[in-house]
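Quick note —
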Amino acid sequence: MSHWLFDSIRRKVSDPGDIVEFGTNCGNTAIALAQTFPDRRIFTIEHFKGLEATRKHMPVTHRGEPIWPEGEFQCDRALTQAALAPFSNITLIDCDIHQLRSPAYYGIGRVAMAHIDVDIYEPTVASLQFLTECLWSTLGIQFDDWHGGEPQFDEHERLACQEWIEANGYQLDKLCDGLRGEVQVRR
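Predicted structure written out below.
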């Protein structure tokens, strides 16, 4: 079964390898990844505490409230574990993204694709730093909250990606620049 979220990036990601997801939440995207890529190992990372606070500008609702308040998207660990249990190709890494060990520690091999759904700047930076430590030559990355063309989101996923690309001298091809962003990165 294919999932519409991954149709375009799947056509562009032909390299073999694992998929790493940052921000499991309740497991829906990890399940979609497992169904779309049944022949790949999916490693999904979550700490079950919800969003951390950010030091960057936070977009607000029409009522002036932050759209992503601290603690938002907190999900029940046991429910997520139960939802993921039927999928033998999913490994849940229960860890704060800022405290991850090396990819080899978790059994992550060559990586072909990543899904980043951590919304705000700081955990996006940590996600990308972890990917720097992974084995890959070409990497497809899907950002769940890219918000291309929406300046109120400039300081989050897009900024973290831009800084990461520049700091490491990677080459970037934007594949999709909408609500969700899709990029292909080459070392």
